[in-house]
Design a protein that fits this description.
By secondary structure, the protein is an alpha/beta fold. It contains 16 helices and 34 strands. The protein has 4 domains: 138 residues, 3-Layer(bba) Sandwich (FAD/NAD(P)-binding domain), CATH 3.50.50.60; 114 residues, FAD/NAD(P)-binding domain (3-Layer(bba) Sandwich), CATH 3.50.50; 115 residues, FAD/NAD(P)-binding domain (3-Layer(bba) Sandwich); 96 residues, 3-Layer(aba) Sandwich (Oxidized Rhodanese, domain 1).
């Protein structure tokens, strides 16, 4: 049995290592185009930022270590340029020339390459991607060489990490994102918190604009943006997304969708004995069922292992799980994480849902250091099935999103979250963990105990309903919605006639800081005969949404 694997790093090396554990006698050849077969690409931004100081620590394995530990034949600087599925051979460009290599089974793990949008001047030597060890070395060298300004094009995960790292090194950084907010998969109200933290770090965040041109200069480049502004740059980091690196494989007759390889539940392509894993493949979304690439290390590693299982033990091999897109990133003192589908994905799939906002503390409120986590969870309207979740905060974000990712994987509904027996001690959590609270709120929404209204409805609500602010007088003094009636929730029962007079038959839309007190007020109002609803996430969420809306309006005005 000769297994040939094209591409190392996550998917390819996972397949190779698992294959060796299953068959000691198989001939396993790994062909890697570049000089590094196994490196920590997720650590590259942190090397540029100086937190990882030893470049060699990013190199997880070499051909020599893989030979000695797993008896793998790893060949670096070997570029596969063609596949002949009928002859079961691959054409390989090597340092010694071109050769044909036969295979019994072939696993393709070519990964993805940086997208290169049509920006004039993108060929500047000051422009670099951040996909390889050499990219990271180049960027770190530029910083060490005296660079003082940087422009990062694209505010996805890598772009955000690169911007943070360069700011950490003392550079003046401008972060440019074509979408209307950073980290496009995040919902607007969550992304606004990240944008504010980036600004606190001194990063100039430009949202909703494109880079049109990079003008080359002797001392530095100038990045010209679509809003007419210009930014000087000693370094330009191109992080505008990725595309499947499959151009050399499509001539073999492999079926693709927008360049990504189509595979079945065991990683099989349409060609006999040819499999594919990783960033270059199409995954089935675990919530919506939509087919899309998922460029994340975790799914690639798992797929590589399962493809090897199917090649060597097809009778017992499990299917490759559908992707949830669970991801996490640091932004200054904040952590942002997500799993499952966002609003756009759910709307595009025609799935009706409720969105739950909450701002619980990461641990017991009476224990020192308690701070709130902004959480958002989508549940299916018909039965409360958990569809997606996002969170932003200083601590405890990873734990909650990982629990909710597990809930989505196991198709749990909101009520199930109430019953999860999660670890509790004052320094770590609450007796009612934030995940439990999601379940409680979800149950209330589904059974009608709680009716929600949302921050993006504010203009319509202000025109058609009485806005009731049930925060304390001190909180209201710090700011409220113009025209809102302010009655602390503890005084509502005694002052219910004031509400009735002010409402004059209109609905009442109540809000507090985070949603808890407005829920209590809502229950009073409902039982007094009012048409009432509570603002999801309260004032905290409203401020984030209004800030984003104002920023969008300002951008629109500047382009008119």
């Amino acid at each position: 049995m000769r297994l040939v694997i094209v591409g190392g790093v996550a998917g390819g090396m996972s397949a190779a290592a698992r294959a060796r554990r299953l068959d000691e006698h198989a001939e396993i050849i790994v062909l890697e185009r570049g000089p590094y077969v196994s490196f920590a690409n997720c650590g590259l931004p942190y090397y540029v930022g100086g937190e990882i100081t030893d470049r060699d620590s990013l190199l997880l394995h070499t051909p020599e270590t893989l030979k000695s530990s797993l008896n793998l034949d790893v060949r670096i600087n070997h570029d596969v340029t063609a596949i002949d599925a009928d002859a079961k051979t691959v054409t390989v460009t090597t340092p010694d020339g071109v050769e044909a290599l036969s295979y019994d089974s072939l696993v393709l793990s070519p990964g993805a390459s940086a997208a290169r949008p049509p920006i004039a001047g993108l060929d500047s030597p000051r422009v670099s991607t951040l996909r390889t060890v050499d990219d990271a070395t180049t960027l770190a060298g530029a910083v060490d060489g005296g660079a003082t300004t940087a422009v990062v094009l694209g505010a996805g995960f890598i772009g955000l990490e690169a911007a943070e790292g360069l700011a950490h090194r003392g550079l003046e950084v401008t972060l440019v994102e074509a979408f209307d907010h950073v980290l496009p998969p995040l919902e607007t109200e969550m992304a606004q918190l990240v944008s504010a933290e980036l600004a606190r770090l001194g990063i100039d965040v430009r949202e909703g604009v494109l880079a049109k041109e990079i003008e080359h200069g002797a001392a530095h480049d100038t990045v010209v943006l679509s809003d007419g502004s210009q930014v000087e740059a000693d370094i330009v980091v191109l992080s505008a997304g990725v595309r499947p690196d499959t151009s050399s494989m499509q001539d073999a007759g492999i079926e693709t969708d927008r360049g990504a390889i189509l595979v079945d539940e065991h990683g099989r392509t349409n060609l006999t004995d040819v499999y594919a894993v990783g960033d270059a493949t199409v995954s089935v979304d675990g919530v919506t069922g939509v087919k899309r690439p998922v460029a994340l290390a975790g799914p690639a590693n798992r797929a590589g292992r399962l493809v090897a299982d199917f090649i060597f033990q097809p009778e017992t091999a499990r299917e490759i799980p559908s992707a949830l897109g669970t991801a996490i990133v640091r932004a200054g003192n904040l952590t942002a994480a997500m799993t499952g589908a966002n609003r756009k994905a759910l709307a595009d799939a025609g799935i009706e849902f409720h969105t739950l906002h909450l701002h619980p503390a990461q641990h017991a409120g009476y224990f020192p250091g308690a701070e709130s986590i902004a959480m958002l969870v989508h549940i299916r309207a018909e039965d409360g099935l958990v569809l997606g979740a996002q969170a932003v905060g200083r601590e405890g974000v990873d734990k909650r999103i990982d629990v909710l990712a597990t809930a989505i994987r196991n198709r749990m509904v909101a009520e199930d979250l109430m019953d999860l027996d999660l670890s509790y001690s004052p320094p770590y959590g609450q007796a009612k963990d934030p995940v439990n609270l999601v379940g409680m709120i979800g149950e209330n929404v589904l059974n009608g105990t709680l009716k929600l209204w949302y921050a993006d409805e504010i203009e319509q609500v202000a025109q058609t309903a009485l806005l009731l602010d049930v925060r304390s007088d001190a909180e209201v003094a710090q700011g409220s919605i113009p025209g809102a009636l302010a009655i602390p929730h503890t005084e509502l029962r005694e002052r219910i006639d004031e509400v009735r007079e002010a409402a004059a038959g209109r609905p009442v839309r109540v809000f507090c800081a985070a949603g808890q007190r407005s829920h209590l007020a809502h229950r009073v109002l409902i039982q007094e005969g009012f048409d009432s609803a509570s603002l999801s996430g309260g004032w905290n969420t409203l401020v984030a949404v209004l800030t984003a809306m104002q920023a969008a309006a300002a951008r629109q005005t500047s382009t008119v």
